[in-house]
Specification:
Length: 482
Amino acid sequence: MDVSSMKIRDMRKALDNKEISARELASEYISKIKEYDGDLKCYITLAEEQAYEQADSAQEIINGGNSKPLTGIPLAIKDNICTIGVKTTCASRMLENFIPPYNATVMEKLDSQNIVMLGKTSMDEFAMGGSTQTSAFAKTKNPYNKECVPGGSSGGSAAAVSAGLCAAALGSDTGGSIRQPSSFCGVTGMKPTYGRVSRYGLVAFASSLDQIGPIGRDSRDCAVILNAICGYDPHDGTSEKVPTEDFSAKIGQPVKGMKIALPKEFFADGINDDVRNAVLRAADTYKAMGAEIIECSMPSLKYAVPAYYLLACAEAASNLSRYDGIKYGHRAEKADSYEDLVVKSRTQGFGDEVKRRILLGNYALSSGYYDAYYRKALALRQLIREEYAAIFEKCDVIVTPTAPTAAYTPEMTSDPVQMYQADICTVTVNIAGLPAVSTTCGYDNDGMPIGMSVIGRKFDESTVLQVSDAFERDFTPIAPKL
């Protein structure tokens, strides 16, 4: 049985009908990982022994007729989510040998459904990047073209789903880190509303922006995983006390009569023609389904990238200050003083991009520059929230490109400014704390996937998934050839 292209619902049916055992399913994926991942480099850690143990436990649940939606389903986990007894490195030398003594809340929730964890996927170091090329251990390749990057920072998770090296995966999204790699790798990824999913056990990058979310083969897979991981958590002070719901409840319902906004700034200069045309064709598809397409404006978009990087880097500088070689992280072997130990440990432990963002964050927070930069970024955050709110007074969802281009070659990553500007289509969603899904809407002239984003009101993930699923039902994806 070829399981690599199966959806979670298909696996659930096959497992419950005893067409395949949980161990056999895990074995299929582990064999494929061993065959292809040496080249693709999606995983930092393969948890083979644990995966088989979990598969056997899941099979007992299945045999007893008590399986849950994810029982026995092989998943991959981004390597900045704490997993008890399994290394969590954040793709950094700073945490190269860190084995968490506890599980992140999302892992506790997944374990309660008896998932099979295949391993920990590569990422940009401390989730800082859009290419997965800043990883200290595994610079992941794009399954559609190994000369191209998979996106980032959740590039390992997206590439693993795309290549059929897991059924689905968890990623984290601070400024597009689930949606952009999902776009580049031709899969579906969701960033939930800020506060919908607990961040407890997620190694922090920017605490007011980070959010854990699912990456799957389609919106229905994402809904199943979101059902499992959402909910209030007293361990997370930013977790919201909102009712849990079945995020698949609206899937399959028509979009006729819905109002879909297209902010003109997301389709302006700087957006590749193939990308712009693919997303506009998707809008035409929705129009043919009976939805009303409404053009609108979001003037603050041109300021979004500098505002985002000021906010994110300021928070990163604060969060990463704990990694000093004494309290946490890599410790230099030889040092002449306390100060020398901290300097050498951080110099050796952090990569260039992480250092760059720490320096930028400390600069923005420093005396004399706080008001000029950080305080203005906070004011712009409020303006962006207000502009989104004004659009949602008239429309149900917003559709935009996920990224200005399709996947690019690693050479582009040498220019930090160009890399930061590439986040223009995603960062406002994190700044405003909104839910969004990226799903494939076409391919460029080189056959590389193009993603579109469906953005919704706070805590309206069900409508976002309904709209993205409606397009997926009318679209035939092209799988990568490994």
